[in-house]
Specification:
Layout lengths: L2 H5 L8 H11 L7 E4 L3 E6 L2 E4 H7 L5 E11 L8 E6 L8 E9 L5 E3 L4 E2 L5 E3 L14 E10 L5 E2 L3 E6 L4 E2 L5 E10 L7 H18 L2 E9 L5 E10 L2 E8 L5 H14 L2 E7 H7 L9 E5 L4 H18 L3
Parallel strand pairs: 17-18, 18-19
Antiparallel strand pairs: 1-2, 2-3, 4-14, 5-12, 6-7, 6-10, 8-9, 10-11, 12-13, 15-16, 16-17
This protein binds zinc ion (3 copies).
Amino acid sequence: MKSAERVVATQASPSLKDLVLLLFKEGIEQEITPVQVPGLGVYYTLAGFQIQVDNVLKHYRDVFLEVKRYVSLPSCSVCGSTSLRLEISCPSCRQSDLLRVDLVVHYECGFMGGVEDFIRDTQGLLEKCPKCGRSLKRVGIDYGRPGLGFRCQLCGAIFQYPLTILRCDKDHLTTLDKIGVERYPVFTVSKDLQKARPILDLLQRIQAELEHSLNVEVEVLRVVKGRSRMAHIVHALIRSGDKVVAVEILDERSDISDAMGVVSKAVDLGIHFIVILDEEKALELRKVLNPDYFTLIPTRERTIENIRDLLLESVYSFVFEKSV
Ligand SMILES: [Zn+2]
Ligand SMILES: [Zn+2]
Ligand SMILES: [Zn+2]
């Protein structure tokens, strides 16, 4: 999976309809869990793309996801933000210049310090308590080793647990006992994902037809990075030498915003797009997909037989002649 390439898509994500196709192609079986991305918010990873939580919660049924269970992420008690940073400080002076130390406690006088505070003999063994000057002989009887603790470098206090505070991205402070929780669904892919099959099937028929008839290289559902560095999913990317052209399928449910999506892909990628679209929708979508810039193939039924001639002709003219 080209994860590095896809993480770029955190800001403006690819359309969820395209992600469905990619999910279907990759046969995603695992759970889709929310993750906190520091400084950015909560995201789901779908087919390798990080999609903002609101976008997924609004449209998850359209991408054939179903809720399997929930998980809670800690949140700010003031504003509910899940972007929290843990801060630790000294319980005495409340500053936060701390060092980890290996603690020693002298039972008789009650002094506790780091092991390096105690006076040692020539072999490095503990010899005397720095506070009372008495000698230390037997661990567990004269002195104890309770383990690792902290030393405040500013006031010198020694302690086992620092003060903990959580700071949200809006600078609110929350303690652990007051922390809030935000519940998010964990998704799995539903059986309805099968509904994406007809488009994927058509793309595979297109691939076979073009490779066979025109001997061009065709990649189905290829992830490509644009000039804006955003990653796009191209339904079919066709290459022959240095010539590149893309094919995109819009179905009968596609609307103006889907058409706009194709336009922004084309602009950002700088590639010519051949758009196969529903005959009924063609008139409406032509307002956005200007036929001067896009090759439109309207069809009543999306079958390879219906589009073969126009598709071959369009790809041929772009890849081999460059004059339309
Ligand atoms: Zn807050
Ligand atoms: Zn201190
Ligand atoms: Zn002592």
